[in-house]
Amino acid sequence: MRVALLGPTAVETDDGTPVDIGGARVRMLLARLALDPGRPVPTTTLIDDLWGEQPPADAGNALQSLVSRLRKVCPVALEPGGYRLGVATEDVDVFRFERLRAAGRPGEALALWRGDALADVREAPFAGPTAARLEEARLSAEEDRGELDVAALTALHEKHPLRERLAGLLMRAMCAQGRQSEALRLYAEVRGRLADELGVDPSQELQNVHLAALRGELGPRPVVDRLPVRLTSFVGRDDELAEITGGLGRYRLVTLVGPGGAGKTRLATEVAARHPLHGKGRVWFAALASVRAAEDLAGAVLSAFEVTFAGDPRRRAGEGMDRMAEVLGAGESLLVLDNCEHLVGAAAEFTTELLRRVPNLRVLATSREPLAIDGESLCPVGPLAVPDGQADLSGFGAVRLFLDRASAVRPGFRLDESTVDDVRLICRRLDGMPLALELAAARLRSMTVRQITQRLDDRFRLLTSGSRTALPRQRTLRAVVEWSWDLLTEEELRLARRLAVFPAGADLAAIEAVCLPDALYVLTSLVEKSIVDVVEIAGEPRYRMLETIRVYADEQLDASGEKWEVVGRFRRHYRELTQRWEPLTRTARQLEAIDVYEAEQDNVVAALRGAIDDREVELAADLLGGTFWYWLVKGDNERAEMSVRDVLALGDLLPPDRYATFRAMQLLMAAIPGVTDAAEAAAVIEHCVSSGAVQKYPSLAIALPMLGFLSQNFELARREVKRAAESEDPWARAGAEWALSFMLVDEGDLEGAERARDRAYDQFTAVGDRWGSAMTLGMKAAFVSHTGDNQAAIDLYERGLAVATELRSQDDAVQQRWRLAVEYARMGDHAAAEREITGAEEFVRTVGNEQLSTMLDYAKAEVRLRAGRVEEARALSAAFRQRAATPTALGSFIAEWVAMLDTRIALADGRFDEAAGFAAVAVGTTSERADMPDLATATELLALVRHAQGRARATERLLALAQVVRGSLDMGDPDVRRLVAELGEPERLAITKAEALRRIREEAGFSTG
């Protein structure tokens, strides 16, 4: 636990999580105890320091009460000497500040300050004197730093006009900028103030500064810039700049390591240019890329010092080191050693010797692997930040760099609707690597951004337009990769090219199964050389190549003649993996299985697509069967539909049970109530039975009953429910109850449906399937809402949302959230409804799902209408009308939603006859597909219209018919509740649903002939 007092009082855990401390008096107690960390503070001292001369009547109990409250969040113990806060001195920023200042590191010490010391507990008697002491120490540290700019020094001088050391620093800074006359005026002002207010003359130190200013000894000095010329702006590495600068303050050797093209040289140059030693002419830069032999390294570094000498060649190395040490040892120095990777052994020996000889030297090195010497601090330099589905790209380093370089070669190029998708794709496909992005931007001289995007698969031919003055290995993308490749051993080359088969990287087990047994040591060597990157997922390392390196490695794998063998092992490995994990996606190990699928998804897809393309039928069928259910759980319906279509295209070569299963899933994903072809659905269901698929694939326990139900073959649907209910698989039995609840709702048996849902929920929970639990909770919430208990429905939706979020199911989470928003709106909590809509919108923007976006916009329109924001709803409805003209997976639903929205808008406007026409459209579409729940909603809406028209009898008839169709009225809808309150409960009609449907269409104005 860490305590911060240099600003408002704050506490955070070791992992950085903020801790809520409590009220003002508790904060005072914490601050006082933290000033004596790890030591007991007597009770009497605490009472005096917290209350001063006016303690409460029972001060001891009052203190004990404060301690009890503080103990809830901080470790406070009662000891013989008083109360002790259980934190170390190093965990309190006040003491870290004092230690850093004493160590001569004022910049790091001052970085700890977040505002005025003890800012929020100043009313405590102890706080004033302590804060004053700390502020004085802070000011002294500012003076010790001595390198502030004029603006910062001026601000400090205005607050402390009688501090002579501060005035001297400001005078020096002014003279360094050529502002000698201002510095002399400042001296006169300070001298006059000292005489008037204190009756003293300036100190000798300040008089010496004045004299030096008069002599012109403090004027600007030309900076000796030995760094490479910076001709372009520096973009996108602010965090790394700060980290490296801080590292150079703590370590004598900092090495930037990363793959070729990551921008290590430019980053090192920028760090050196901004370092305080650069302004003093104490920075040197040695470029080693052109050095071929290790024995030439010292001479190449020496040339950076512009020192030459003749004599016996055998004496030059030693004399050269002596001369360098002499120059560097004349003061604090910074040496940049650029591109050490091809001479890494010699560079390590040279750097060790130089650091030993020159104690005040710091070295900043760049390399594709560490120098691996004592005291080295590594700073990995990887890709720039790349957008991953976010709508706003402007803050990503990769995008900023591409746009900066693009506007240089094509003035006026900017990020807008016409370029945003291509820019996003370029940044992602090029891994955010600076050199690749710069080469791509350079192509805008002769190509459009779309043409660049379309040619990224041929990136080594595309990205060849580097600077003519750059080193040859930096002019093309291929040359950059080849430079690294040529540094590998034969064993490293073998593993590196085989790793190309993993588009998503892999763990060690997969690499050893597919590429090379006992691969760990070779693999770690590739990591050291920046060919392979390693990330930790759930505590386990995962190894991956940047896309550009992988493309090059794939070329080498092709040329090796071993590609088919490696690819075969790759596909078989992922068949085995998916067959092992697929059954667990419906068990208590579901989240563990999803973690595996998420990590391996691109590998599985690559194996599946390759098997399809090469017509490896059984392999393709097994891979699809092993991952299909995961796609459905995650809501990745588009990928599922495409893969099923392509595997089914293999036709008769597929095993019959697989073909039947995939065909059933294909029909179900496209099914619409009342529209799905009943004969085709029945044939597919029978094929699943006759081929034995129903015994092998548990997912059919839901798929077949629902396919029968949606094709309105209710007898067949009931038969399949019964079959699933008798299964030995407990998940299949839960699925049977889930499907049964749909059918009972359609039949109007709402209580039976609710019992089936309860059984489904209990059984899904028992087997550990969160997907089934979340879906069942959503269905239960809709039922409870119709009873009129909006709050209970909200509670269920929130439970469903929590489960879907844990499951990381994008479809389910968004649907639960927008239904939650609508339910809040129906209850009248419009602020909560907007909050849920906003949260869902942020998620949809991230995943970029057009269908979810459409559904969410419909929910948003309903929320706005119920809040009385009619104009906003009107705009959304107009947008929906445009979408209706474009074929989508939602099909006729969009036109139906437009009709529902327009009905409500027309009612709000008082255009009752127009509202009747819109409502009739909704009645027509829902009745044509015999979707009873949706038809009931449309009927209730038409009842609202008739009531607004003053047609009370028609209103009563429609409410009674809606009751027949659904089994009850939607009492969770405040508009329906108002109708029932005014007109009374509708009469119970003893008619069939078919008759009710006929009468509803008649009421809406449709012919019954």
TrEMBL record:
A Gene Ontology biological process term: phosphorelay signal transduction system
Domain OmpR/PhoB-type: 1-99
Known DNA-binding region: 1-99
Gene3D superfamilies associated with the record: P-loop containing nucleotide triphosphate hydrolases, Tetratricopeptide repeat domain, Winged helix-like DNA-binding domain superfamily/Winged helix DNA-binding domain
A GO molecular-function annotation: ATP hydrolysis activity
Keyword vocabulary terms for this entry: DNA-binding
Matches recorded under PANTHER family: HTH-TYPE TRANSCRIPTIONAL REGULATOR RV0890C-RELATED, REGULATOR-RELATED
Family (UniProt): Belongs to the AfsR/DnrI/RedD regulatory family.
Name of the protein this chain belongs to: Predicted ATPase
Native source species: Lentzea jiangxiensis
